[in-house]
């Protein structure tokens, strides 16, 4: 195999498949209410403040008075509680407000402001959105929206950071970006069959015309009916095939046109092809030398020939040209491109994928006995566990038993906490649930090796505004914090809606803990101040010294708190600080981590507020920022800590 070399962008044009060339030429000629359970009473721990919390926190309290007013730097939450318009720092606003589900237009607006204020920091925050390791947020869609903004305004910066971008997420991010650029921002992900059918019928499956079709089918002899049915099926198949051919031709035509006519797109395409070619060439050399332990995943994420990514980006042709240059001046370019693509498949992709022991290879071959379960990635394990149980139950169950006993490991790094909980609750299959249990335990164990949360408790918003995925994330992260907290706070969580409740989570397994969480009190309100009113009330009633106060409170919420302050335009945090000071606990106000889980405009504090952090997203990774014994300096300092890793410092601004 020829060594991969960076091809001169002007040395060739992509030709694509024949239908793309013909179409391109022609075109040139002419986008919840569940049963509530009372908070579980806990046994005495010997820790004065926690025992007082257990005894007194869940007692009912009278609702506070409310008021209204106005202030130029503040606004109101959706529930009319005063809040800040902005943190005062555009980069921090981007860090705090962008969460999974944030509209791309909002991502673009926030990024534009952040970039105007501090381009290097803004770029690192974009990388932090995608980061699946370290302190990254694992927000793929948010990252794609930000990357498309970068390509539009700063294309060289995006393209010249392609290698680092792939390192933050995975190599597949680059073909996905090329696809979206060529197809108006549309993803390769498509809705399922049922969703498509429902969408095509106004939300209901079509049944009209069934009577007419039945009557028509009954006409004639049985032979005639069979012949008519076969003819109808052939017609439908031919129509569908013609539509597929047309879509493929149009997709390839767009790819050729974008590459040959758009310099910014071509530059990103070339950098992507360079990276894949370089990695594949090195991996092929290692494979030939028998060095298979440290192969990259380039063969896994390089598009397969004629796959969706290949048709929409023609990336296989570009990579093949770099790996296998045309050494014959007599071979027509179109014929050479076809041969190079085939050689890419046979000489690089197929042998490397087999060497990587990718489960997809063995699944496609139905060679279930060859699946190496210890090498199955976390997301693949979640997605394929049903297939493994169906086709290779004995080996798979034996593997799970070995994981449980500690003899083998199971991957969990790329999964988000709520994804594990959701995969657990999808069905009651014992082995399926065993996968979720083991992945959750691996996640907890990996986090514990980094440290624990000292004198810390989670507050989970379970109000009506959190309905859906944000509530699932709130509960899952609350469970995780309760597992990572040091004694005596381990296993405790506070929920707040109409009234806050302190819960001692019961159960030894994830299944039992999830079942307990399902029975916790749920409501429609978000009385945030009531949580700290109860904490303060407990401390005062028990006459606890300030040093016994809980040190840190992590608040998983959408920040849309209810109005609860007696003073006009006093934010919830300002009210909490005032109440603690009046009660003699002014120096013991708990550090608060405001963890945003939903697209909203509320900002609880400003950037310089001491003892407070503003973070967001669905990932467990940001918890790592709070596993040490150091105090929280300010929201800005926590943000800077999140992007201080080497992987973010390597990102550079070029335009």
From TrEMBL:
Residues 455-639 form the DUF7788 domain. This is Uncharacterized protein. Residues 52-75, 183-224 are annotated as: Disordered. InterPro entries: DUF2828 (IPR058580), DUF7788 (IPR056690), UCP015417_vWA (IPR011205), vWFA_dom_sf (IPR036465). SUPFAM superfamilies: vWA-like. Residues 212-224 have a biased composition (Basic and acidic residues). It comes from the Eukaryota. PANTHER family: OS02G0179600 PROTEIN (PTHR31373:SF25), OS06G0652100 PROTEIN (PTHR31373). Residues 77-453 form the DUF2828 domain. It comes from Eleusine coracana subsp. coracana.
């Amino acid at each position: 195999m020829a060594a991969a070399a960076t091809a001169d962008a002007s040395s060739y044009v992509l030709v694509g498949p024949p239908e793309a060339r013909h179409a391109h030429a022609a075109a040139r000629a002419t986008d919840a209410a569940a049963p509530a359970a009372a908070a579980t009473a806990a046994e005495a721990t010997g820790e004065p403040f926690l025992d007082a919390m257990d005894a007194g926190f869940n007692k009912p309290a009278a609702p506070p008075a409310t008021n209204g007013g106005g202030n130029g730097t503040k606004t109101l939450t959706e529930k009319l509680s005063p809040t800040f318009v902005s943190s005062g720092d555009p980069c921090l606003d981007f860090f705090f407000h962008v969460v999974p589900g944030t509209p791309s237009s909002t991502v673009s607006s926030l990024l534009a402001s952040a970039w105007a204020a501090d381009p290097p920091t803004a770029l690192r925050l974009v990388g932090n959105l995608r980061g699946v390791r370290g302190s990254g947020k694992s927000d793929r869609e948010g990252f794609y929206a930000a990357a498309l903004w970068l390509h539009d305004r700063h294309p060289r910066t995006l393209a010249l950071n392609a290698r680092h971008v792939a390192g933050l997420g995975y190599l597949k991010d680059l073909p996905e970006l090329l696809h979206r650029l060529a197809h108006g921002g549309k993803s390769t992900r498509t809705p399922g069959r049922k969703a498509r059918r429902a969408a095509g019928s106004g939300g209901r499956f079509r049944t009209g015309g069934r009577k007419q079709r039945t009557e028509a089918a009954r006409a004639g002899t049985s032979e005639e009916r069979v012949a008519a049915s076969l003819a109808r099926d052939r017609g439908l198949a031919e129509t569908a095939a013609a539509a597929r051919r047309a879509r493929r031709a149009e997709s390839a035509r767009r790819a050729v046109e974008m590459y040959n006519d758009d310099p910014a797109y071509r530059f990103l395409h070339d950098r992507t092809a360079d990276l894949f070619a370089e990695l594949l060439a090195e991996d092929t050399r290692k494979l030939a030398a028998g060095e298979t332990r440290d192969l990259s995943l380039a063969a896994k994420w390089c598009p397969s020939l004629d796959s969706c990514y290949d048709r929409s980006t023609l990336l296989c042709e570009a990579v093949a040209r770099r790996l296998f240059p045309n050494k014959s001046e007599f071979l027509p370019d179109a014929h050479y491109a076809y041969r190079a693509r085939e050689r890419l498949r046979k000489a690089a992709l197929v042998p490397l994928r087999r060497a990587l022991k990718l489960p997809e290879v063995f699944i496609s071959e139905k060679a279930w006995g060859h699946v190496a379960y210890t090498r199955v990635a976390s997301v693949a394990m979640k997605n394929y566990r049903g297939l493994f149980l169906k086709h290779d139950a004995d080996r798979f169950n034996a593997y799970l038993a070995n994981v449980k006993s500690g003899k083998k490991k199971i991957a969990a790094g790329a999964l988000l906490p709520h994804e594990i909980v959701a995969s657990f609750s999808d069905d009651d299959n014992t082995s399926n649930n065993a996968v979720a249990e083991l992945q959750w335990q691996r996640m907890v164990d990996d986090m514990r090796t980094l440290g624990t949360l000292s004198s810390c408790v989670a507050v989970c918003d379970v109000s009506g505004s959190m309905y859906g995925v944000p509530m699932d994330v709130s509960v899952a992260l609350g469970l995780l914090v309760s597992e990572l907290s040091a004694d005596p706070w381990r296993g405790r969580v506070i929920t707040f809606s109409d009234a806050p409740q302190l819960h001692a989570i019961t159960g030894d397994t994830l299944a039992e803990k999830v079942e307990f969480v399902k029975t916790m009190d749920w409501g429609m309100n978000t009385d945030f101040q009531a949580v700290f009113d109860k904490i303060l009330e407990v401390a005062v009633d028990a006459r606890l010294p300030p040093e016994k106060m809980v040190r840190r409170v992590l608040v998983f919420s959408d920040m849309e708190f209810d109005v609860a302050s007696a003073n006009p335009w006093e934010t919830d945090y300002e009210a909490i600080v005032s109440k603690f000071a009046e009660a003699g606990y002014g120096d013991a106000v708990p550090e608060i981590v405001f963890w945003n889980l939903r697209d909203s405009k509320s900002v609880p504090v400003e950037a310089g507020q001491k003892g407070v952090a503003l973070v967001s997203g669905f990932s467990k990774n940001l918890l790592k920022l709070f596993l040490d014994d150091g105090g929280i300096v300010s929201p800005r300092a926590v943000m800077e800590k999140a992007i201080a890793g080497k992987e973010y410092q390597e990102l550079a601004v070029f335009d």
